[in-house]
Amino acid sequence: MPRILIISPNWIGDAVMAQPLLQRLRAMHPGRPIDVLAPPPVAPVWRQMREVDDVIQTTFRHGALQLRERWRLARELKRRGYAEAYVLPNTLKYALIPWLAGIARRIGYKGESRYGLINVMHHDDVPPRPMVPFYAALANAPEAPLAPAPRPALQVTPEQAAAACVKAGLAAGRPLVVFAPGAEFGSAKRWPPGHFAALAQAIVAHVPLAQVALLGSPKDRAVCDEIVAALQDTAAAPAVSNVAGQTSLAEAVALIGHSAAVVSNDSGLLHVASSLDRPVVAIYGPTDPDHAPPFSTVAAALSLRLDCSPCRQRECPLGHHDCMRKLDAALVWHTLQPMLPAAVPA
């Protein structure tokens, strides 16, 4: 039976928000295998999706054309027998792969002179749609009317959650609140470490058995260390664990799936939490909460919506970072506290 190929975005959050596309494709073609071509940092997320039959990891360097490697990969894909490919990255380099592989239908959005490489061309609205319906629309014809998109959904097994707790040194029987203080995009998207520390103190005071896990990549380790340092000599300090960079992405996903609530910057882990339907408080500064909002059943998107935001800059161009600094811990705690009793026994 002909297979379907999904060419993954390079970001964790985008991969999560693309999952409703797979839900639609599975409903439209229930017997056809769906494979995903993904970079190694994103591949673990796709493996948590029930619609995915196989994940093929790429070996491309960021920004490099590597035409010989793309040609070699295309020959491998041709042998697997794909009838259509959905090219989610909006670049010429990734559109080359299904064209070289001779895949008949190559679906994607207009971008980077891809005419011919993409032969089922979609066009985005102005202003652009939120990311979930943006990707989900690719399942239908370009001229089809827009339809509500399903919610992204990852899955975590109890065995995965238990193993991740052991790896992170967390007690599986105690309530867990996850903080995601990092942001790959840049420092402007990070809520100040002191605010995270103040929030941790409020959580532990309200739920004495609570434990707080700081999750992220090795790049986020330093900012998480700042949170731990700010908690030194406080009653909350023993309850806070910095495991950024010490868990794999798959283990971080499992910990989020096990958590009672998640507080996150606008990052990939925010969208992982939403897709696992965890109660979420999402903190936005330089980015637009309407573009990639949380979609959990219980969720809040916090933004001061200052005149200077969303600036979409990696660092605050005005130097004051007011969009994050003035969004204080008391406001986030006021939003988070009602979420905790439903998920965490006080």
From TrEMBL:
<dbReference type="InterPro" id="IPR011910">
    <property type="entry name" value="RfaF"/>
</dbReference>
<keyword id="KW-0328">Glycosyltransferase</keyword>
<dbReference type="GO" id="GO:0008713">
    <property type="term" value="F:ADP-heptose-lipopolysaccharide heptosyltransferase activity"/>
</dbReference>
<comment type="similarity">
    <text>Belongs to the glycosyltransferase 9 family.</text>
</comment>
<keyword id="KW-0808">Transferase</keyword>
<dbReference type="InterPro" id="IPR002201">
    <property type="entry name" value="Glyco_trans_9"/>
</dbReference>
<dbReference type="InterPro" id="IPR051199">
    <property type="entry name" value="LPS_LOS_Heptosyltrfase"/>
</dbReference>
<dbReference type="Pfam" id="PF01075">
    <property type="entry name" value="Glyco_transf_9"/>
</dbReference>
<dbReference type="GO" id="GO:0005829">
    <property type="term" value="C:cytosol"/>
</dbReference>
<protein>
    <recommendedName>
        <fullName>lipopolysaccharide heptosyltransferase II</fullName>
        <ecNumber>2.4.99.24</ecNumber>
    </recommendedName>
</protein>
<dbReference type="GO" id="GO:0009244">
    <property type="term" value="P:lipopolysaccharide core region biosynthetic process"/>
</dbReference>
